[in-house]
Specification:
Length: 106
């Protein structure tokens, strides 16, 4: 469940997000690389965080940003994340207020 407004307007506080743990790996085998614009869930300070990939630097890692830049704690504050911290790729948004479903991948 989205806990803040950091990804607004794409994701709203209270939305339920379905994460594909197979987004980048299957049984520990990497088959697809994360790319800029993917919305990912990753572990940061013992919390599951959802942000959008802004850029990838092979030597530094993955730079993530919230869509609501004014109200987002992201790589501008905590730096690049490692690919190993990614839990999965956000694929479906369930908005319970509007009773709507949005697919987040093409």
């Amino acid at each position: 469940m989205v806990a803040s407004e950091s990804m607004y307007p794409t994701l709203e506080k209270g939305d339920v997000i379905v994460i594909s743990k197979l987004g980048y790996k299957i049984f520990g085998i990497e088959y697809k690389d994360p790319i800029p614009e993917d919305i990912i869930a990753f572990n940061h300070k013992q919390k599951l965080v959802i942000k959008r990939i802004d850029k990838i630097d092979d030597s530094k890692g993955i730079f993530v940003l919230g869509d609501n830049s004014i109200n987002s704690t992201d790589s501008r504050e905590f730096g690049y994340i490692s690919q190993d911290s990614i839990v999965g790729k956000a694929i479906i948004r369930l908005n319970l207020k509007e009773f709507s479903i949005t697919f987040l991948t093409e």
